[in-house]
Every structure is written in structure tokens, then in C-alpha cells.
Amino acid sequence: MNTITLTTDxxxxxxxxxTMKGVLLGINPRAAIMDITHEVPPGDVRAGxxxxxAACRYFPKGTxxxxxxxxxxxxxxxxxxxxxxxxxxxxxxxxxLSWARAREKIKTIRQLENPKYFLKTIxxxxxxxxxxxxxxxxxxxxxxxxxxxxxxxxxxxxxxxxPEERGGTLCGEIVYIDRFGNAISNIAAGFVSGEAKAxxxxxxxxxxxxxxxxxxxxxxxxxxxxxxxxxxxLEIAVNGGSAAQRFGLKPGxxxxxxxx
Amino acid sequence: MNTITLTTDxxxxxxxxxTMKGVLLGINPRAAIMDITHEVPPGDVRAGxxxxxAACRYFPKGTxxxxxxxxxxxxxxxxxxxxxxxxxxxxxxxxxLSWARAREKIKTIRQLENPKYFLKTIxxxxxxxxxxxxxxxxxxxxxxxxxxxxxxxxxxxxxxxxPEERGGTLCGEIVYIDRFGNAISNIAAGFVSGEAKAxxxxxxxxxxxxxxxxxxxxxxxxxxxxxxxxxxxLEIAVNGGSAAQRFGLKPGxxxxxxxx
Amino acid sequence: MNTITLTTDxxxxxxxxxTMKGVLLGINPRAAIMDITHEVPPGDVRAGxxxxxAACRYFPKGTxxxxxxxxxxxxxxxxxxxxxxxxxxxxxxxxxLSWARAREKIKTIRQLENPKYFLKTIxxxxxxxxxxxxxxxxxxxxxxxxxxxxxxxxxxxxxxxxPEERGGTLCGEIVYIDRFGNAISNIAAGFVSGEAKAxxxxxxxxxxxxxxxxxxxxxxxxxxxxxxxxxxxLEIAVNGGSAAQRFGLKPGxxxxxxxx
Lengths: 260, 260, 260
What we know:
Number of strands of chain A: 14
Structural class of chain A: alpha+beta
Largest interface: A-B, 30 and 34 residues
Number of domains of chain A: 2
Distance between the termini of chain A: 50 Å
Strand order of the largest sheet of chain A: 8-9-13-12-11-10-14
Helix content of chain A: 10-25%
Largest sheet of chain A: 7 strands, mixed, barrel
Oligomer: homotrimer
CATH architecture of the largest domain in chain A: 3-Layer(aba) Sandwich
Shape of chain A: elongated
Radius of gyration of chain A: 20 Å
CATH class of the largest domain in chain A: Alpha Beta
Order of helices and strands of chain A: EHEHEEEHEHEEEHEEEEHE
């Protein structure tokens, strides 16, 4: 259990992430510390939850995943650790851990309250460094979750927008825009596979329509295309361009898949 | 002594930092190389000095901290290594190391002049790769600083703006704006702790006033708030927004704390 | 053979790179994974090729270099691995590997077609994670390239613009703009060394002329200067500023060196 991942909204412009790594190495010098991303938009719990969900299962069993998107740092939101069959998740109970854990069988949830595993001085504004990093480092060395605090029955679950079937049309929504401007939806691959002739409509700033393809380059250059993306969800792309920019797509936009 | 940190203004867009890591690993394959930040604004020695100061003490004893903000690369500024009680600092003598070292007991300062520990070919524009990385890697393997060059009596010390007390008002200044738009001042926590009723005024583009709180979320959403930040200094924040953007705050702006 | 480098256009805003690292560690937990850059402009094969060329030879012998700039992901372009005297290169056969390999003696080129060394499920949009990362991890553990697939005679070679001599003037072009706004040309150091009095002209938006110097700071502040940069090529810089911004320089602009 020596790999630790970090998913935060701290950015890489300042010293915040570096400082967390210092704390991690101070406790577990042999940890392999891997960044998932630190560019989650500040306070955007859903974007952080999506990134963690998309990446976590590609890491080896036993990895400790730390995710800190924490608009309420210093307030009364709880700090938690969750043991699943394959991983340990550590972070604030803001929902940022919840989509990743939805796929995992949960063994135990613990509140982080034992100061023995925190830094000695706890700031009110940087629990990533003072609480989550030291706890994660101890866990990566094999510390039992029991030592951290009381068992919890549940944690904050971010609602996952489920696609709905309405009269031959599957209605979903855009949940994430990636760096390439691809608009990733909540419609999982299983819902749409094999429907090669499906037509996909997105209602953003204006309505746009696109055909289905197996990969980005299968559409004409600069044309919109619907593909099953690498995270396993239907996404809207533009071959050689940004779908989000071109069509003004945003999280929350409706996406309709018609199979007639 | 196997952890090496990097603080630079090289950015991550090009290959500069990656190249330094290649050099480090070539000499010390077991080094744990950690980025503090590479997004120091180009040539901004003060911002680099602040980042290093804020992060360095969270790393394990024996860490080699490399900081390269070096507007005068290739010119006659010296290259130095400094052994303190806990760390070794390596970089150009531009002042970028000086705020971090202010907190550390200095044991020896050496000029980097022994080419045995440099790359064989030294460019005039990239000493981070050709001098600082190889020296740091050798130091992380236990090389004595004595081997590097002559002992120096002193190094370039960046002036640290000290807050002043004037008739019941503590006068400081903004020294750093972080990614969240929090404006970090030079007023250390010790000066202001316990003054729960203190009023804080910042004179930027226009004068703004804010109350004191224990953490960001304790202020109303979108309201300015003065908190003791995680780096141990008073900072001005906006709950859920960017104080720098909203009030036009910049390094150098005066910040006044009144306790009446 | 335990160091693996990554050069991509995936950015660091999403989870793509983190996911590749998860896959790498799952197969080779002892790999030292180093980022060269992930900020190659989306689909810009030349920029990726230049970054890899500039950085790769600073890594220890045996390093596995993975480069993924892959506008045609999912289409029929080949996936390849190349063994040179010092390194192994892995990536799509888009030309992104070709400038780096131009300096290396090639031992064998293999097509990646043995699914035993891929992830079990291959997406059509993210071969970085599903093919290149697992292959690189196996190679870093010592897998012979023979196991990967058939031997290839050649690979896609990106044309390298060679500078031309015309009547006492060396005519080259800008090939890369770095984060500092330095405009790096295709004119190698060997062509220009010692010509201290050379005058350099760049024809961008408008014609600009600059003198030669040994390093950036040798020119007056805010003046343009031609130097031999750290990647071994002539570059145009502005002391304390951005040459690209100030003079509107772009890749493809002509650069003329006159020695009269």
C-alpha cells in the first residue's frame, strides 16, 4: 500500500500541493505520490468527484486516494476515510469522494478525529496539508482505519444525474467539459452501444445535432461527433476542435439520444 | 538525504523541468523529486522566495531544496549552496533562497565553482539543468558542501518588509496573491492572534475594510474576510470568490490592522 | 530500466495523465515516472517532437520515453516502439517520436500489436492509457521489443526544416516558442558559434533585427537579442520580456543570420 494519489482544486501555481507532498514523504518516505489533477475549478465538488471516479480504478489495489475539494474548510463538515475492497479514500465529506465510491464495495467509513495522525498544528484553512496528507501517509504505511476515529454509517453522496428513457429517447446531461472541449455526459456506454445509427442532440446555447462514431477522427474535420469516450460515457466532440467552445456546451446541458 | 524539491519559474509548458529531472535521476536514481511550483511568474524573485519559505519546512530533514528564479542567468551572479540545520538549499544567489533560510540556522554557505559536479557542457541560459540539478543530485547522495567551492560569508538577502506599529495600528503590506485570489500579507499570526474584534483595512485600488474570522467560510458568501492563513500570515479572502480580483489587490498594497 | 518519461498534449486539468500513471504503477510499481510536459498544444505533433528531442538525452540510459500527440487516435495510424542505443521510445507513429530518434542510432522498430501487453479493454479514444502506458511499463521491466509485434522498416519522419546558406546569409526558421516567449530556431549552435559580430534578422509580422550575445542578460533590458539557447539552437529573446509577444513571432517565421 504505497501509492498515494492526489486530486485537489489547489492548482500548481502556489506551494500548496508541494507542501502536502512534503508531509506525505515525512511520514512515508517510500510513498509513490501521483497527481490525478490539481486543476479542479476552485470549489467545484462535482468536477473533482468526476475526475476521481474516472481515474481511481486504474491504480493498483491498495492505493490511497486523497481528494480535497473543500469549500467549507475549517467549518463543521466532517473529515473521513473510507475503506473499500480495493482502495482507501481520504478527504472532506463534501461529496468529492462519493462518485468514486459508488463503484466500490464499502467496508468501513471512519471519521478523522484522532489528532495523533494529524500535524501538530492544525490551520483552519489548509486541512489538505494538516489532516488529509498525514492521515493518508499513515494509511499507506498500513495503519488500520479503526485508529482514526468513530465508525460512520454514511457519507455525503453527491446526486448522480441518472439518464431517463422517455418515449424512445434517452435524456441525459453534460457532466464535465475536458481540456479538449469534449463534453462528457452521464450516459454510460452500456446504454448506447451498438446503436450505430443513433442521432444525438444537445441543447446548449442552441440546439445541435451530431452523428455517432467510433472515434473522433471518424467524423469529418470540424464536425461534431458523438463517441463513447475513455471514461465510459457518451461524449460530444468536434474532430480537430472544441465542441464546448463551438456550441457553447456546459455541464447541465441536456443531451438526447434518439434511436429511431 | 534523498528528497529533492524544485521551485522555479520555468513553467510546465516546455521541457525545462523534465530535463532537470532527467539530470537528477542520472546522478541519483533513487531521488524522490518533488515539485513545489514551477509557476513562479518569470523573474519574480520575491514570489519564488515566498513559495519556498512557505513550503520548505514541511519536508523531511535532509531534503535538498533547489530554487531557480534567475533573471540574471549567465551573468556574474553567483551560484550557491547553503547548509542549514535541517536542509540544503541550492540555487542562484538572487535572493530566491533568502526568505526560506531566514528561519533556518545556517551552517555553511558555499559558492558552486567545482565543475566536477556540473554537467560537462554548461549553457549560458539554463543553469537549472547544467549546474543546479547535478549539484543537488550529488548533495542528495551525501556529497559534502566543502567539495563545491569556497566558503562565502553571506548571500543576497531579499529585504523582508517588516510590519510597523503606528499609534495602535499595525501597518503591513500584501506580499503574495495565491491562485484563489487570497492576498497574503507580511503580518505574522503572532501579531494578531486573539484580536477577534480587529478591523482590517486594505488600501489597493480603493480602500476596503473587512472583519476578522477564523476561516474563510465563517464570513458571509462573497464578503471579504481577514484570516490567519495556512502559511502563518494574515490574509484577505472573499468567501467563495477572489479577493484580489474583486478589490484589485496586488503585492505592495498597504494593509492596516486596527484594534480599537 | 526503471525511468519512464511522459510527453503528451493531455494537459493536467483532467485525469488523463494521472490515469496513465496508475496503469504504469500497476505493472511496474518501482517505475520512476517523470513528466516532460503535458502542455503540448492539442494535436501539435511538431511541438511535441521538439520537446521530446530537447529533453530525452538528459535522461539515464535505459529510460523509456512515451510520447503521445495523437490527433488520429482510434484510426489506422500505427502504434510503435523503437529501441535505440540508449533509449526506448513508445508512441503513435505520427512523427512525434521522429526528431528525438534522429539523434539516436536505431536498433529495432516494432509495431504494437500483441494485446497481451495492453489493457484488457481498449477504448477508441485513449490509447495513452490503454496501449502506450502498459507497453511502456512492461518495457521498463525488461520486456523484449520482439514480443510486441512485427518489425517495421521505417516510421513516420516529420520533416525537419534544414537551414540554407544563400550568399553569405544563413536562412532558417522559428520552430518553437517557449513559455518565456523566446523564439527557438532550427539553426544549430555549430553553424553560428564564434560569429560574435553576426546580425540576426527575423521576418515575422514585421522585420526585426537583433545583435548577438552570450546570454539573455548581456543585452540591454527590453532589447531583442540572439543567443545560442539551452537546446543547442539559435533563439531570439528579449531581456526581461517576451520576444514572441513584442515582435509577433511564430513558428514558421524566417530567420536570417548575416555575417558581413
